[in-house]
Structure formats: C-alpha cells, structure tokens
Amino acid sequence: METEEVKRVVGTQVVDTLVKSGMKIGLGTGSTAVHAVHRVGELLRQGELRDIVAVPTSFQTMVACQRAGISLSTLNDPAVDGRLDLTIDGADEVDPDWNLIKGGGAAMLIEKVVAHASERYCIMVHSSKLSSRLGEKAPVPVEVVPEALLTATRRLEALGGEVQLRMATRKAGPVISDHGNLVLDVSFSETFDPRELDTRIMGIPGVSANGIFTRRVDDLFVGYPDGRIEHKHNDRA
C-alpha cells in the first residue's frame, strides 16, 4: 500500500474509533491529519456525526475544515472554555516512550497549546515515523522571532545542534510560520533527554516554540504498508 493510502486509512480509522457526536475536538496539521479532517466532514455530511466543534491548529487545517463543512472555534470561545475532549494529530517521529517530534508543517506552537488543552490526545503515524530515539529520523523544529535568528542559532549550536534555517519550496526565502516567525531545523547526532532539551530550548530568548512534545499520548495509531492498522493504548499512569 502506498504511503498516502496508509495515511488515509489510518486517519479514517482514528475518526471512526474515537470521534463521537457532541465532541469538542482539536485537529492537527499535516499530511496525515488532513485525512482525519476529511473523514469528520464526510461523517457530518452523512449525518453519522453531529454537533462537532473543531479547533484547528493552523491556517492549513482551518481551510481544510472550512472546505469539509466543519464548524470552527477557538480555545478562547466561551463555548469551548479552553478545554477539548480530544485532539487528533500526526507526528514526524515517535520514540519508544511516545515522545514526539512535530513541526514539519511549522505549526508546533498551536499544536502544543491544543494538545495540552485536551482530555485525550491521539497521534496517528505511518510506521516509518517510529524510531529508537528522538532525533534519529527528524530534526527538532524551533520557531524563533526574526530578531533572534542569529542569537538563537548560536545558543542551539552550543547545545550540540546543527542548525538550518528552513527555506520555502514554492517561494523565495524562508518558511514563515502562522505567527510571522522563522523556523530553524536543528539536528542532534547524540541521544538527548526530551524533557531536558525541551526546557533548555525554551529558555533561549526569542524562541516561541519547539517541536519536542512530551505531553502524554493516550492513543497511538500506526499504519503499516501491508494495510494493517495498530491501535495502542497508553495504560501508564
């Protein structure tokens, strides 16, 4: 099964398994998350879901939700009150303890806010995203205000990272986040403690977010090229 089809199947199964009528849900960003958006919209049109309120994590997801006919809100809306029943998102890398690297879509700031506002947090990935340690397959994205580009780069290099400014592919110049910031992709060749590195990166002036996610993942859906979907539950306290 081709990679995109695996993503479609896993995104569909996550929604069919976890999303219920009346829920307030967070919807993530990226090529896997968009399939979950499409499935929610499909079930709403069919009448199998109703009264769904969604909080998107990026402009990309907002547009996809609008096209799918999904009612949108924000965490600040009194009807949401800063609390979500469930967030569904993808990841660029998942370690054995289900720590994540996210931010391939440059949306890690709001993805992290939404994740921590959720009662239940679900991650869905292609099996190729599983790794033995964070940083093995993906760099750590770091969002910085433009004024801190050089100073933050030096501090990240002092932490042992190899820093690259993320450049756009269909426009001249760097990638600009939804909040007008730059994205640095930082590769670490050595094993690191996710919580410790997260804390140290966030201590750098000018950094607004980074792609290390250590919030407890409650459900992990893994799609495999043979079409198999594995649903793992986090039973740890």
Q: Can you lay out the helices and strands and say which pair or pack?
A:
Blueprint: H1 3-18, E1 24-27, H2 33-46, E2 53-56, H3 59-68, E3 84-89, E4 93-94, E5 100-101, H4 108-116, E6 118-126, E7 140-144, H5 149-158, E8 162-165, E9 182-187, H6 194-202, E10 207-210, E11 212-213, E12 219-223, E13 229-233
Parallel strand pairs: 1-2, 1-3, 3-6, 6-12
Antiparallel strand pairs: 4-5, 5-11, 7-9, 7-10, 8-9, 12-13
Q: Mind explaining what this structure looks like?
A:
By secondary structure, this protein is an alpha/beta fold. It has six helices and 13 strands. The chain has helices at residues 3-18, 33-46, 59-68, 108-116, 149-158, 194-202, and strands at residues 24-27, 53-56, 84-89, 93-94, 100-101, 118-126, 140-144, 162-165, 182-187, 207-210, 212-213, 219-223, 229-233. Strands 2-1-3-6-12-13 form a six-stranded mixed β-sheet. A four-stranded antiparallel β-sheet has the order 8-9-7-10. Strand 12 (219-223) and strand 13 form a beta hairpin. Helix 1 (3-18) packs across helix 2 (33-46) and helix 2 (33-46) runs parallel beside helix 3. It is globular. The model has no long low-confidence stretch (mean pLDDT 96).
